[in-house]
Amino acid sequence: MARSRRDRAEAVVENVDAGVAELTPDRERARAWTLLIDGAPQSHVDLDDPAYLSFAYQRRLGHAIDLVAPAQRPLQVVHLGGGAFTLARYTAATRPRSTQQIAEVDAALVQFVRKHLPLDPAARIRVRSADARAALAKVPDGWADLVIADVFGGTRTPAHLTSAEFLADVRRALKPGGWYAANIADGPPLGHLRGQIATAAGAFERLALAADPAVLRGRRFGNAVLLAADRALPVAELTRRVASDPHPGRVEHGRALADFTGGAAVVTDAGAKASPLPPAGTFAD
């Protein structure tokens, strides 16, 4: 049962398929909200300024949206994982006339977000309540400029979205020269992250990884954003943007990224595992 106290911009809470969804107001921005699932932060949305990205990993994915094509050019984007539709809103705001598809398996979450954080009806955004890999399989060959994978069942990425077979379907859906961008969560000893880099390297020619230096050094659990394409990535500009973010990060590519991967094996469907659980207290205030 939902309970809503919107007269003073209080939190909104509702049971969804994945657990308990909560929208908490941002006390510094009048119409901004953070979406949490079972207490874990998932998305931040500012309805007055959809081009504002609060979370560090979402800013890094925003850089991918900015850099995949010349400014203002409309894009065709597939978002695997919906959350509060933050990155689709960002794309619509910064690249008008873009056409986007969102796959979010949690139908109750989709309805919750639509109710309390409605999408601009003029935006060309289609939301499907479907498993991400099943939805990806329905994307026409060569349709997307960008495929973004930001899928978490609770706090873990499902195993079937971590494999070489999954990435083969990503490649099929991408236009020639299109990009794949993934939000990957891991902590020491970073085995999952290294495996995801190795798997992407088996599917794409060029890679870059952006993350907090402490995450890359294996000092704490956190998010890393992996970019992959079959053409040169704008590494210098990406590095500049990531370094100048409110929470500065580091970009690895080329030989340094290969060395970081350390000979990790490519992940296949047969041996795929969900991403690791965050340690207790990761999301504590």
Rg is 18 Å
Distance between the termini: 26 Å
Strand content: 25-35%
Shape summary: globular
The biggest sheet amounts to: 8 strands, mixed
Mean pLDDT: 95
Query: In percent, how helical is the residue content?
Result: 25-40%
Summed up, the helix count is 9
Tell me about this structure:
It is a single chain. The chain has 285 residues and is of the alpha/beta class. The protein contains 9 helices and 13 strands. β2 and β3 form a beta hairpin. α6 packs across α9.
Task: Summarize this entry quickly.
By secondary structure, this protein is of the alpha/beta class. The chain has helices at residues 56-67, 86-94, 107-116, 132-137, 164-173, 191-201, 213-216, 235-243, 254-261, and strands spanning 3-4, 12-16, 19-25, 32-37, 40-46, 76-80, 99-103, 124-128, 144-149, 174-186, 206-211, 222-229, 250-253. Mean pLDDT is 95; it is low at 1-7.
Question: Keywords for this structure?
Answer:
five-stranded antiparallel beta sheet, 9 helices, eight-stranded mixed beta sheet, alpha/beta, 13 strands, 285 residues, disordered N terminus
How do the helices and strands line up, and which of them pair or pack?
Blueprint lengths: L2 E2 L7 E5 L2 E7 L6 E6 L2 E7 L9 H12 L8 E5 L5 H9 L4 E5 L3 H10 L7 E5 L3 H6 L6 E6 L14 H10 E13 L4 H11 L4 E6 L1 H4 L5 E8 L5 H9 L6 E4 H8 L24
Helix pairs in contact: 1-2, 1-8, 6-9
